[in-house]
Write a structure and sequence with these properties.
Strand content: 15-25%
Number of domains: 1
Shape: elongated
Structural class: alpha+beta
Helix content: 40-55%
Oligomer: single chain
Number of strands: 4
Largest sheet: 4 strands, antiparallel
Distance between the termini: 30 Å
Radius of gyration: 19 Å
């Protein structure tokens, strides 16, 4: 998803309410989030992190799968040493 779409999806119309400027090009990007330079209305320079909504759904599904797998008995030594909490 293009970076400007991520920030629009994350902040919507509130972008203009919170920021005087918001650079549409990310300063940095990773698989789950992007970081953008921005300026507040008082002139303070800040960094804004945005993540695409589809990533939240994917992470939530992955965690659900891991929790289900944890409930199953395992013959693997590594599995017995891993615990998850809600």
């Amino acid at each position: 998803m293009p970076s400007n779409e991520v920030m629009t999806q994350e902040l919507g119309a509130r972008r203009r309410r919170f920021f005087a400027t918001l650079d549409p090009q990310p300063m940095a990007a990773a698989s789950l989030a992007q970081v953008h330079a921005a300026t507040l209305h008082n002139g303070e320079e800040v960094v804004v992190k945005g993540s695409a909504a589809q990533h939240r759904a994917t992470i939530s599904t992955d965690l659900d799968i891991l929790q289900e797998l944890q409930k199953r008995p395992s013959r693997h030594r590594w599995r017995r040493s891993v615990t998850m909490s809600s």
